[in-house]
Design goal:
By secondary structure, the chain is of the alpha+beta class. Helix content is 20%, strand content 49%. It contains three helices and eleven strands, in the order αβββββββββαββα. The longest helix is centred in the first third of the chain and has 14 residues.
């Protein structure tokens, strides 16, 4: 048994996902993209909220986004009505409602995004972001860690003047 673990453990470590972001080029559209991994920013029984940061660069123009996935495991589809930060309305745009979104088990989901300015993105890299999300069936308080924004800026070589977040 111990011998098996000695062989399996290094394989598991080698296959574990990395926190590093990759900068990739989409030949079809001519866009450079930096996309973070999904990070869970809220969990309550059957409900999960996942966040990821996205930076798109094309033709000298750079756009910044926070993508959100609202997952509900009991069949009731999430329907987001308003997203605010510090009382300010955020320009949340719903992209899709999915009947089945499977991670650890299957959920119904709503996926959307918030476009951000470089100033908002850098501020979030320093302080993180707390979003109050009002849904048709329930509300969420999502805590998005600063490391998501910081690592995306670092990968895009756009760090200045953001500071490295505390662990």
């Amino acid at each position: 048994m111990l011998v098996r673990l000695a062989f399996i453990f290094p394989l598991l470590i080698a296959c574990s996902p990395s926190d590093r972001l990759q900068r990739s080029y989409m030949h079809e559209t001519g866009v450079w993209q930096i996309v973070s991994r999904d990070t869970e920013v809220f969990r309550d029984r059957d409900v999960h909220v996942l966040a990821r940061t996205i930076i798109l660069e094309s033709g000298g123009e750079t756009r910044y986004y926070l993508s959100l996935s609202f997952l509900h495991g009991r069949g009731a589809r999430p329907q987001i009505t308003i997203v605010t930060q510090n009382g300010d309305l955020m320009p949340y745009e719903m992209h899709d409602r999915l009947r089945t979104f499977c991670i650890d088990h299957c959920h119904s989901a709503e996926v959307g995004q918030i476009p951000l300015t470089i100033t908002q993105f850098r501020m979030a890299a320093n302080e993180g972001m707390t979003l109050k999300v009002a849904g048709k069936r329930r509300d969420y308080l999502a805590q998005i860690p600063s490391r998501l924004f910081y690592s995306a800026l670092q990968t895009a070589n756009l760090l200045e003047p953001a500071t490295k977040p505390l662990p």
